[in-house]
Amino acid sequence: MAVCETCGNDYDMAFEVHAQGAAHTFDSFQCAIEAMAPVCEHCGTKVIGHGVQSGEHWYCCAHCAREEGTQGIVDRVMAST
User: Is the pLDDT of residue 81 over 80?
Assistant: First the structure.
């Protein structure tokens, strides 16, 4: 069995996530997200989708990036006809 590094649960179905040269052990995706997901620098939510990045800054959406002064990021591009 392996111990989850987020909650401490000793669980027989724990799994490892390998990222940036390190191995992390979790008992659920919830714990993995809590430990590894970046946090939106505007609203504080965990970025569990693609999110948007401006330089070294991470945001959950284009709106939050714009609120922090990033220019040029949009939610979608309108198709030309």
Answer: no
